[in-house]
Amino acid sequence: MAIKYVTDRAEAAGLEAEGTVVEGFTAQERKIRMSFESLKSGNRIVVIGGVAAGLSAASKARKLRTDIEILVFEKSGHISYGSCGLPYLISDLIKSPEDLVMHDSKFFKEKRDIDVFLYHEVIAIYPAKQSVLVKNLKTGEENEYQYDKLVA
After folding, report:
1. 9-18, 24-33, 106-115, 143-152 — which one is most confidently predicted on average?
2. Which is catalytic among the residues 12, 27, 84, 90?
3. Is residue 84 annotated as a catalytic residue, yes or no?
4. Which of 32, 33, 102, 150 has an alpha carbon 20 to 30 Å from 25's alpha carbon atom?
5. What's this model's pTM, rounded to 2 decimal places?
6. With 80 as the cut, is the pLDDT of residue 88 above it?
7. Mean pLDDT throughout 105-127?
8. Residues of the chain with pLDDT > 90: what percent?
9. What is the CATH number of the domain that holds 56?
């Protein structure tokens, strides 16, 4: 399922803003600068995706700011793995998907104070409100989370 990306640009193009689906983002929209300058304001970072890149971004943000809340939403039950190892799993050189996992969500909470939500899918992004709509895939419950910075 594509993430709904609701923007003023969609409205200007005559599209219905609520529920407008944009398959890809521009390079500028995807870019995040992980520097102290870009993180010196705000209290919450939301990261979409809990594989290696998302958790690296979250960990870098934590090193730069120890006082902010960091939420990571991952739609699967697996985090902190590099997808480059998947061919080894498919070819049976690695026997278990767990062998690809570097750290679990407990590690990120206890060691880095990063909240990781497994089986939670971001289904909409609302830049104007600086919020994301997240669906708990186990319960079906949907909640909106505010953010100051978004990594997607």
Report:
1. 143-152
2. 84
3. yes
4. 102
5. 0.67
6. no
7. 86
8. 33
9. 3.50.50.60
Buried b (16+ CB within 10 A) or exposed e, 28-57: ebeebeeeeeebeeeeebbbbbbbbebbeb
Whether the Cβ atoms of residue 117 and residue 71 lie closer than 8 Å to each other? yes
Tokens at 48, concatenated: 């979409």
Q: Indicate whether 56 belongs to any domain.
A: yes
The size of the chain, in residues, is 152
The answer to the question of residue 28 being in a domain is: no
pLDDT of residue 50: 84
d(CA 102, CA 148): 28
- Alpha-carbon distance of 85 to 99, in angstroms, equals 9
Place of tokens 């990306």: 5
| Residue 98 covered by a domain | yes
Please name the residue that has the structure tokens 């300058």.
37
Cα-flanking dihedrals φ and ψ of residue 111, to 5°?
Answer: -90, -30
Identify whether 30 is part of a domain. no
